[in-house]
Amino acid sequence: MSAEDLYIFFLLGIERILYGCWYIYPNYFKFQVRMGAFGENIKNEPLFWKSAMTLGKYIKVIQFSVVTYDLLYRCNISHPLDVEPKRLIAGIALVLIGQVLNVAVFKALGGVGVYYGHEFGYPVKRVSCFPYNASWISDPQYWGVVFTIWGIYLTLGASMFTVPVVETFWYVSSMKFIEHQRGRDIARKLMGDDPAKYSHK
Predict the structure, then answer these.
(1) Which distant-in-sequence residues (6+ apart) come within 8 Å of 149 by Cβ?
(2) pTM for this structure?
(3) What's the CA angle centered on 131, arms 130 and 135, to 5 degrees?
(4) Is the CB of residue 31 less than 8 Å from the CB of residue 199?
């Protein structure tokens, strides 16, 4: 793995590690928001899930920048008409499936549900509509991102797939460990989490 690959691995991991911290230590995040650690605009936002949403948008800029840089400067990409038809069809299908899943998740949960409202103490109803009633997929939002990225690379006939592989690693790690109860249990055993030591007022 080259130094550039390591930078990509780190930059794409920022999002998942940050979201994992929100999941495991929501009280500490709220404390940092009120202390102004993320700037005055976020500090003055009364809803913590909206603070998370704003930070999430900033993180997406990093993610999209890495993907764009990789496609423009590291990969040889092709005009869609020059891509092998089977690969092109598979790529377009993955992008469509991924975006349908992402839109459906936001429609089902709303911003408060997507951006850890439950963890931050806001009422979030359990839903049973699509895509959460689909037995063929778990964590539809995260798989939606993974499908979309793979689909973009396939559609453009990219010559290398380092970024899709790294993104798959980070999102599967989130689903199975970082934002999973097993990750929460291990983190709290190692570092502890005493909500009483933080003030959110």
Answers:
(1) 67, 98, 163, 164, 167
(2) 0.89
(3) 105
(4) yes
Which one-letter DSSP state was computed for residue 174? I
What's the whole-number average pLDDT of the chain? Answer: 90
Between CA 33 and CA 46 the distance in angstroms is: 10
DSSP 161: -
In order of 7, 19, 65, the CA distances from 47 in angstroms are: 33, 17, 28
Quote the CA–CA distance of 129 and 20 in Å, as a whole number: 25
Sign of the torsion formed by the C-alpha atoms of 167, 49, 117 and 30? positive
CA distance 107 to 92: 22
Q: How far are the Cα atoms of 86, 93, 95, 141 from residue 100, in angstroms, in the given order? A: 21, 11, 9, 10
Residue with tokens 């964590």: 139
Give the H/E segment covering residue 173: helix 162-173
Q: What is the pLDDT of residues 68-114, one digit of tens each?
A: 999 999 998 887 778 899 999 999 999 999 999 999 999 999 999 99
Question: Are 98 and 142 contacting, i.e. CB atoms less than 8 angstroms apart?
Answer: no
